[in-house]
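Per your request, structure below.
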């Protein structure tokens, strides 16, 4: 089925925005019980009412196996809803803080209040997960939301629109679909918060537009996520984890290991193990496997092919994946060695099923290379030696890290998820997502006349001494 994007209507957007602005304080005043009721509705929609339609949509957009949709589209958000429902009353509670003695006669606390009208722009690679995931936090924090999903996954957008219309009123949550012009028109509006997931380049456009209204932003971006394999690593287990993390969704995962940096002594064993595990996962011709996703569209297929060709021209070799003719939007798991650091493959985020393997002998080389580049969204370390793991951890920075695995830090709602600088600003999931969509309002309450009355003008010699005394001791 071909889905056409409806004609873009600026007035409609402005009307939805105006209705949400009007309604925002009603939503902000909702109780934990009311917000939990909405989350339960969303849970049931995703877990039962629309689950099969979601499978079909992702199959149509990506050729994705329903099991993979369950595992990495639905499971993380269902888990996130359960976690939020369990903790929401606690998160919403006013948080008392200590007061200095000089403020005797008062009480202070933090009130987490909704930011207001929020814009949520999501990408195509995990369309359901990366749209409803942040929506859970926005609902939990009591916001109204306009969602703009990606134009690249029309079937997923269509089912999400159906769910949003079925569950929510537009004055509270609305989904508008469309291309860049819709995103641009939305960015012109004075939202109270923008939650954007996508590429660093578009992230800069979003931040610039937000600056016009001094709108706060959460930017969940991307970049190259390195994977280090130390000489003490369990090679078979590393190969299995990395093959799973890299080739799931055909490498179109923001936290997929972008490239591997492996100790020189292990490279041959690692390549053999990787070859075996790819066959175990997807058979000898992965592009005809039902368990292997395809590239989202022809433009991205050409982009990835361009990265491979450029690397080959600069001397790289394909060591796994050269046996299959590329067809339609299918690119097999492709592992390359001898990759020049000057090739585009090592300059840009790959976002496809191509894995460059670099080797090292001295850990310092690895650190120097990683730290010369923008701070990664994820960094993975495989090894058994605690001292080495600590060395890599303490001498780099990243949005998140898995030790002896990859991807799985995303699945734990107790951990903050996000990047650093180029790979992102702000954090999502669990309490971190709730706080991202909340204004931490500092409230000071005077209970009875305090000592501060003694410090007000006129500044007699006695008061000057008292102020000095207060500064020093209270
Ligand atoms: P993208 O930046 O091209 O698009 C993301 C969204 O921005 C889409 O909805 C798109 O319609 C919208 N958009 C496009 N042009 C725009 C403009 N000028 N103004 C405002 N909005 C605009 O990203 P993508 O190709 O959908 O996704 C891939 C990128 O997203 C990769 O870099 C990946 O690493 C990153 N990503 C990050 C995370 C994360 O959680 N950090 C998750 C998934 C993807």
């Amino acid at each position: 089925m071909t889905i056409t994007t409806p004609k873009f209507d600026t007035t409609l957007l402005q009307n939805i925005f105006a209705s949400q602005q009007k309604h925002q304080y009603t939503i902000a005043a909702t109780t934990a019980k009311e917000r939990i009721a909405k989350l339960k509705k969303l849970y049931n929609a995703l877990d039962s009412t629309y689950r099969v339609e979601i499978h079909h949509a992702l199959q149509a957009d990506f050729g994705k196996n329903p099991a993979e949709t369950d595992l990495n589209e639905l499971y993380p958000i269902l888990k996130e809803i359960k976690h939020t429902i369990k903790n929401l009353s606690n998160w919403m509670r006013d948080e008392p803080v200590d007061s200095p003695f000089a403020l005797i006669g008062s009480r202070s606390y933090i009130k987490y209040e909704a930011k207001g009208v929020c814009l949520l722009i999501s990408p195509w690679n995990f369309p359901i997960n990366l749209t409803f995931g942040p929506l859970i936090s926005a609902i939990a924090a009591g916001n109204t939301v306009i969602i703009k999903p990606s134009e690249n996954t029309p079937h997923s957008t269509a089912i999400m629109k159906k769910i949003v219309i079925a569950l929510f009123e537009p004055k509270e949550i609305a989904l508008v679909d469309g291309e860049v012009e819709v995103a641009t028109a939305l960015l012109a509006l004075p939202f109270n918060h923008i939650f954007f997931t996508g590429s660093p380049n578009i992230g800069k456009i979003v931040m610039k537009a937000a600056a016009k209204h001094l709108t706060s932003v959460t930017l969940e971006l991307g970049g190259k996520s390195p994977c280090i394999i130390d000489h003490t690593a369990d090679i078979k287990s590393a190969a299995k984890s990395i093959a799973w993390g890299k080739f799931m969704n055909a490498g179109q995962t923001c936290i997929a290991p972008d490239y591997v940096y492996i100790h020189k002594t292990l490279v041959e064993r690692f390549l053999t193990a990787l070859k075996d595990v790819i066959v175990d996962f997807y058979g000898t011709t992965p592009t005809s496997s039902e368990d292997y996703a395809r590239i989202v569209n022809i433009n991205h297929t050409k982009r990835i092919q361009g990265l491979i060709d450029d690397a080959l021209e600069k001397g790289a070799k394909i060591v796994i994946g050269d046996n299959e003719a590329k067809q339609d939007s299918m690119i097999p798991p492709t592992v390359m060695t001898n990759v020049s650091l000057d090739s585009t493959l090592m300059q840009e985020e790959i976002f496809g099923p191509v894995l460059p393997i670099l080797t090292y002998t001295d850990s310092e080389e690895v650190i120097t290379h990683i730290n010369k580049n923008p701070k990664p969204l994820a960094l993975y370390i495989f090894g058994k030696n605690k001292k080495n793991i600590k060395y890599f951890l303490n001498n780099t920075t990243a949005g998140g890290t898995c030790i002896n695995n990859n991807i799985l830090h995303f699945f734990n709602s107790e951990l903050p998820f996000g990047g650093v600088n180029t790979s992102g600003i702000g954090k999502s999931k669990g309490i971190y997502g709730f706080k991202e969509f909340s204004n931490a309002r500092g409230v000071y309450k005077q209970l009875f006349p305090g000592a501060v009355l003694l410090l007000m003008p006129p500044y007699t010699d006695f008061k000057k001494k008292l102020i000095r005394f207060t500064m020093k001791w209270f």
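The mean pLDDT is 96.

Regards,
D.
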